[in-house]
Amino acid sequence: MVRPPVIRVTALYHFARFSDPAALRGPLLDACQSGGIKGTLLLAPEGINGTIAGPSDAIDTVLAHIRDLPGCAALEVKDSSAATMPFHRMKVRLKREIVTMGEPAIDPLDGTGTYVAPADWNALIDDPDTVVIDTRNDYEVRVGSFAGAVDPGTQSFSDFPAWFRAHRDELAGKTVAMFCTGGIRCEKATALLKAEGMADVRHLRGGILKYLEEVPAEQSRWRGECFVFDQRVAVGHGLEIGTHLLCHACRMPVSVADRASPLYREGVSCPACHDSRDDARRAGYAERHRQVRLAAARGEAHVGRDYAAAADDGDQ
Q1: What is the mean pLDDT of residues 160-174?
Q2: Which is nearest to 304 in space by CA: 41, 95, 9, 89?
Q3: pTM of the predicted model, to two decimals?
């Protein structure tokens, strides 16, 4: 039996100074579409961010195109794989920021915290004098996090600066270690802390994804799974696809325990959103889910609002 080709999934970001991001959009979109690449890329005056998927050689072509952009020669990526295409379409979007923090004076190119390699992360966070902070949003933290990490309880990354300023005195004199999915939020978060006078600020190089890829499960301090912004929903050690699904009503991750709840109905509701939707909206979701299943039975993709579009923070 001939096995279907494995889809390469590449997460990337790079801070650079683009004087005219709009001029870069068309050629980049053409490069992606000509190779059958799908996903979402964000362009802003501060750089590029996103996740793309497709044949490995086509991904390489797109990465070569990106590395030719101004200031992007040192672009690093994080690769994983999927059995099926995790995106419905290809989008290149223009944004004010490639990850939205809402602090225009903060520029990671002016300085960030100290990178910590995944192999050295355990020793750092095991130190009792280290405060470990998860910079992701509350729904991501619920899926999984490092043992003992502080959860700021933010609903959006733009909430993080206010949280930090409210807790600045508690962090004074401490070693602060921060992490996020792929590293991009920590570039800005550590730059913010450094700009506001914090002396010892560090962050996990390559983010959770690189840690899960490189650190053996038996040595890991990670608990749970890591939410990702595509149809895999979450991954575990070795970047294996996890057990979470996505609620198509509220776009929140749904655990195995959530799916056992009487409030969960596939494609219609989950414990997070059941009480905030009325019968009319649930009926609409039920019809959409019926259409999705009919399309699947015909071997077709039902193209709706995809996961990346629901995660406009653009975190990697």
Answers
A1: 95
A2: 89
A3: 0.85
Contact between residue 235 and residue 80 where contact means Cβ atoms under 8 Å apart = yes
HEC letters along the chain:
CCCCCCEEEEEEEEECCCCCHHHHHHHHHHHHHHCCCEEEEEEECCEEEEEEEECHHHHHHHHHHHHCCCCCCCCEEEEEEECCCCCCCEEEEECCCCCCCCCCCCCHHHCCCEEECHHHHHHHHHCCCEEEEECCCHHHHHHEEECCCECCCCCCHHHHHHHHHHHHHHHCCCEEEEECCCCHHHHHHHHHHHHCCCCCEEEECCHHHHHHHHCCHHHCCEEECEECCCCCCEECHHHCECCCEECCCCCCEECHHHHCCCCCECCCECCCCHHHCCHHHHHHHHHHHHHHHHHHHCCCCCCCCCHHHHCCCCCC
- Percentage of the chain surpassing pLDDT 70? 92
Q: What are phi and psi of 58, to 5 degrees?
A: -70, -40
Burial of 170 (0-12, 13-18, 19+ CB in 10 A): exposed
Report the alpha-carbon distance of residue 23 to residue 30 in Å, rounded.
12
Enzyme catalytic residues: 180
Neighbour tally for 23: CB within 10 Å: 10
pLDDT, position 49: 96
Residues in the chain: 316
Does position 309 have pLDDT exceeding 70, yes or no?
no
Contact 180, 186 (CB under 8 A): yes
Nearest to 40 by CA among 56, 23, 28: 28
| Mean pLDDT along residues 125-138 | 96
Rounded Cα distance between 170 and 302, Å, is 49
Instruction: Report which of residues 289 and 305 the model is more confident about.
Output: 289
Structural domains present in the chain: 7-98 (3.30.70.100), 108-224 (3.40.250.10), 244-301 (no CATH)
